[in-house]
Amino acid sequence: MLIQKIVQELQDIPEDKLAELYNLIHYFRLGLSQERTQPRTPGLLKGQLGDAFFEPLPEEELQQWE
């Protein structure tokens, strides 16, 4: 059975790497269980943007992004 092969492989992984492997497996599994939603259509935004949206950000705000 495949699960037994996986367990055998896990036994050869160094103890200090197991936490990384656990996170990989855990979040992979969580991703599988998420509902499949309709794909987002890029570029379509409900509503309208005002001209202020396209104005450059103030220097103080730009510094916060860095």
Structural write-up:
This protein is an all-alpha fold and 66 residues long. It has helices at residues 2-11, 18-33, 59-65. It is elongated. The termini are far apart. The mean pLDDT is 85.
Brief rundown of the structure:
The protein has about 70 residues and is an all-alpha fold. The protein has 3 helices and no strands.
Largest sheet: none
Number of continuous helical runs: 3
| Beta-strand content bin | under 5%
Radius of gyration in whole Å, from Cα? Answer: 23 Å
Low-pLDDT residue spans: none
Terminus-to-terminus distance: 50 Å
Categorize the overall geometry.
elongated
Mean pLDDT: 85
The ordered H/E elements are HHH
* SS elements, strand count: 0
Helix content: 40-55%
Helix/sheet category: mainly alpha
State the main characteristics.
elongated; 66 residues; DUF2281 domain-containing protein; mainly alpha
SSE diagram, text form:
Layout: H1 2-11, H2 18-33, H3 59-65
